[in-house]
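> run fold Cyclic nucleotide-binding domain-containing protein
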Amino acid sequence: MYDVLYPRVCSLGHVGVSFYFIVSGSVIVERMEEDKFTGEQHKQVVGEMAEGDAFGELALLHNIRRTATIICKENSEFLRVDKPDFDEVLRNSHQIEWERRLSILNSQPILKEWEKTEIRNTVAHTKIREFPPNTVGTAMSAVILGDIDVPADDVYLIQSGKCRVVREITMIKKESSSGKIQLKLPPINFNENNIDNNVKERVVRKFLSVHMLSKGDFFGVGEDLKKTFIISVGRVHCLLISQLIFMKKERGKSLEAMKQGMNQAFLTHKQAFKTYTEDRDWKIYKKKLVDEIVRRRKRPHSTTYDDVPIVVRVENSHYFEK
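> ok
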């Protein structure tokens, strides 16, 4: 059945009779949480969902009352599946999916201190996403997260595949009168309009790999992603957990620790610049060395066959040709 609802879709504690797909619009997920210090109950937003997401299966799968209130953020449209149809068509697949996500959560080292009930309650705020490989013609579709000033909505736990962390580095390239190239990082509050064209300065941008992520790693925890992109290398599967779940856990202490760990793992702009310039200098040196060897091999010399001692010619005749 097709519904247009606003503002409340279902309420905490009510009997679950339907499952919902979000056709358009967005909703917030609200639960009652107990303050561990005061014991008082208060409403807490624990997640958001948008077009393409679904909800309401938990009450139908486990025959329990609604565990959260779903409120529309805007005028929203839903495809509603009532319980008899859900049981007949969708129950088995959703039960398997629910157990799969629970198993993944139980295997995560970062959640090993969580209680079992906390992990089970978290399942409803997770989703599995597949990201395509970074192939020619589909490069943009391979960017999972990138160049954002605000924290992501979800924490990404990599289940399979690898991701490359790429950072855009802005440099000033200056050419001297002798033709020598010098690279340097721009100063703080740099303005491209201040480039001095009279001394052959120009701005260049390079995308440099600063870290690799693989199965068991995570991202989207509030780390610095300005001018930084997380790109799939091959096909990648991630389990996404609403960041709000981590924010309410120990008042966000675990999330902050994860954030600091990620920022320390990434090369800074200065470190990435140093790595790039050292690699560039090494490549230039190797090219000069190879060019010099090739040049010397082509240099004519006056040594002839007759200049080689006869004993050497006899013992190594296969090396010499008249």
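The radius of gyration is 30 Å.
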